[in-house]
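[Discussion] Sanity-checking designs against the backbone

I'm trying to build intuition for which residues belong where. Below is a structure token string of 134 positions. I'd appreciate it if someone posts a full sequence so I can compare it with mine line by line.
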């Protein structure tokens, strides 16, 4: 199937055009490739999802690893502005480039540590952005 990211050499593909670029993107199940890849890359911000990918052995699949490498375009403009939670999303995307992390994310301890770090970062951001008036 041509629309399956693991059936093509993802590293040789160009990123999809961002919205409003005037290009008419084909739709897959009613969504553009931009929308599908944005949804997927944002899911990478969830440590539990990373653990799920590891449990399904996807993080040891060379084609999937190449796809993760290809997705790094999300860390640059103009794509970066579309990510809702860029901190954990891009951190995890970067960590997924490392073989040791792809092996270690199967550990519930690592998943929990990443989850707790993410919650603390959110709390700290909220405190910095909205300081108390007391």
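Best answer:
Here's mine. Compare freely.
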């Amino acid at each position: 199937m041509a629309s399956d990211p693991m059936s093509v050499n993802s590293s040789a593909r160009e990123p999809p055009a961002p919205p409003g670029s005037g290009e008419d993107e084909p739709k897959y199940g009613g969504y553009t490739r931009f929308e599908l890849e944005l949804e997927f890359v944002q899911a990478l911000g969830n440590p539990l999802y990373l653990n799920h990918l590891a449990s399904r052995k996807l993080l040891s699949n060379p084609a999937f690893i190449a796809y993760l490498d290809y997705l790094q375009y999300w860390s640059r403009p103009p794509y970066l502005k579309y990510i809702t939670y860029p901190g954990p999303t891009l951190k995890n995307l970067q960590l997924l480039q490392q073989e040791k992390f792809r092996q270690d994310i199967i550990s519930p301890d690592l998943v929990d540590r990443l989850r707790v770090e993410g919650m603390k970062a959110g709390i700290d951001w909220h405190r910095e952005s909205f300081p108390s008036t007391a």
